[in-house]
Write a structure and sequence with these properties.
Structural class: alpha/beta
Number of helices: 14
Low-confidence stretches: none
Strand order of the largest sheet: 14-15-16-13-12-18-19
Radius of gyration: 25 Å
Oligomer: single chain
Helix content: 25-40%
Largest sheet: 7 strands, mixed
Mean pLDDT: 97
């Protein structure tokens, strides 16, 4: 694969490449140059119907013996083959990811390692599923019971643009490990590597219809997938507003949904920290992935006794972050994904300034980047808790700062949000860290760090950040249904009704 070439792919349905029913395609825009560098197919409801039908056929093929009821060890074999191919193609996939969404190349390469690791991890859970089958339940005399864990069926997977292939893998790997078949609809803003995943699946011989990939616009492809009567579950990562629409779409057929939505996560820094270490973690927690992280700890609560020095050091560190073409060596902040996102972030910064906040650094295009959707790392102070910048998810490299005096005040500020995805606390007092870990209302808490994520640990949020957990030991359970099988073991008649003469 030439290093600047975007492969010309079609939709991936029933193990084959298919042109979209209406023949439409969407441009792939490089956020670094603002130039169109390729195309992806624009699927519509007709293509979703075909993909769901292929997934249903694959689920039932040979009465399920080919996939859904096959031993987990068979499915694990395919997942491990996918993982190996991801590593084999790591360099090309990382470059494509950077070109497509603006992610620094070092980050994209790290993501590819995580993609392979996630497929490997759930391959292990597919094998372990065989041993979890037919577990016995203790019942009163004359009865015995065992439990079967069965795939929930055909699943619709709708994924975002900030970690295009990794977020898709968080859903695809456990779904396939469980024995489900799937239709993946990636974000239209970054679909390239998800189409390459389809190519990997074709190369390793994944049975046709097990994974289908339909790219396209949300209203034209995502919406019909969410509401499709033959889809048994929808898993979605994205915005709170879209999450609400998916719940509404799923309601008429009462299909279960898993939602990982937005966040406005706090990072609480006390006055007993090593300032340089804490500054780096604070910036990493907000500026990693160009600030486009649902779990970004974008609300800094800093103890008043160190606030002045801490903020000064943050500004100095921020000015030292290399903002460049994401393919350049050492890039640590690339462009945001699209012009729309770029304008939205600038509007947030402008509104903050008009409300009386101070833009200490950033908030504008870097002077050395004439093209591209670049925004300098941004730090905003003189905040009050009613401001839009404090309450709403920006999804860009923007950090807002508020001071606190007491632990109780810090906890109250940390929980002053509609969201509950993540939170972080940095302190030299381990007992204090544990207290805040208990008090902050969020699904993920980091202590003396921010943002590390591992497929072995569950991931998900509370409140408007959604519900359900991905990854971890329970990640596969999202895609399983439990069936109880109860047997009457006595030779005696039941004896409830009087026998006719």
């Amino acid at each position: 694969m030439a290093w600047l070439t975007i492969p010309q792919r079609q939709l991936f349905i029933d193990g084959e490449w298919r042109a979209p029913a209406l023949g439409r395609r969407l441009p792939v825009v490089n956020p670094t140059t603002e130039a169109a560098i390729g195309e992806i197919p624009a699927g519509t409801s007709e293509d979703v119907d075909a993909a769901v039908a292929a997934a249903r056929a694959a689920l039932k093929r040979n009465r399920g013996r080919d996939w859904s009821r096959a031993p987990g060890a068979l499915r694990a074999k395919y997942l491990r083959a996918i993982a190996a191919k991801i590593i084999e193609r790591k360099s090309d996939l990382a470059r494509l990811e950077s070109l497509d969404c603006g992610k620094p190349l070092d980050e994209a390469a790290w993501d590819m390692d995580d993609v392979a690791g996630c497929f490997e991890y759930f391959a292990g859970h597919a094998e372990a599923l065989d041993k979890r089958q037919n577990s016995e339940v203790s019942l009163p005399e004359n009865f015995k019971c065992h439990l079967k864990k069965e795939p929930i069926g055909v699943v619709g997977l709708i994924t975002p643009w900030n970690y295009p292939l990794l977020m898709a893998t968080w859903k695809v790997a456990p779904a396939l490990a469980a024995g489900c078949t799937a239709v993946l609809k990636p974000s239209e803003l970054a679909s390239v590597t998800c189409l390459e995943l389809a190519d990997v699946c074709k190369e390793v011989g994944l049975p046709s219809g097990v994974l289908n990939v339909v790219t396209g616009l949300g209203p034209e492809a995502g919406a019909p997938l969410s509401s499709h009567p033959d889809v048994d579950k929808v898993a979605f990562t994205g915005s709170y507003e879209t999450g609400k629409k998916i719940m509404i779409a799923a309601a008429p057929t009462v299909k279960p949904v898993t939602l990982e939505l937005g966040g406005k996560s706090p990072i609480v820094v006390f006055d007993d920290v090593d300032i340089e270490k804490a500054v780096e973690w604070t910036l990493f927690g907000c500026f990693w992935t160009n600030g486009q992280i649902c779990s970004a700890t974008s609300r800094l609560l800093i103890h008043k006794d160190i606030a002045k020095e801490f903020v000064e050091r943050m500004v100095a560190w921020s000015k030292n972050i290399k903002v460049s073409d994401p393919l350049e060596e050492g890039c640590r902040l690339g462009p945001v994904v699209s012009e729309g996102q770029y304008e939205k972030i600038k509007k947030f910064v402008s509104n903050a300034k008009s409300e009386g906040a101070t833009i200490l650094t950033g908030g504008v295009r870097p002077k050395h980047m004439e093209k591209g959707f670049f925004i300098e790392p941004t730090i905003i102070t003189d905040i009050n808790t009613s401001m839009e910048i404090w309450r709403e998810e920006v999804f860009g490299p923007v950090l807002c700062v508020i001071e606190f005096s007491t632990e109780d005040e810090a906890i109250e500020l940390a929980n002053d949000t509609h969201y509950g995805l993540a939170g972080a606390v940095i302190s030299g007092d381990r007992e204090r860290c544990q207290r805040l870990a208990e008090e902050i209302n969020a699904g993920c808490i980091w202590v003396n760090c921010s943002q590390p994520c591992f497929c072995q640990a569950p991931w998900g949020g509370n409140k408007r950040s959604g519900f359900g957990r991905e990854l971890g030991e329970g990640g596969i359970d999202n895609y399983l249904s439990i069936k109880q099988v109860t047997e009457y073991t006595s030779d005696e008649p039941w004896g409830w009704y009087k026998s006719p003469a």
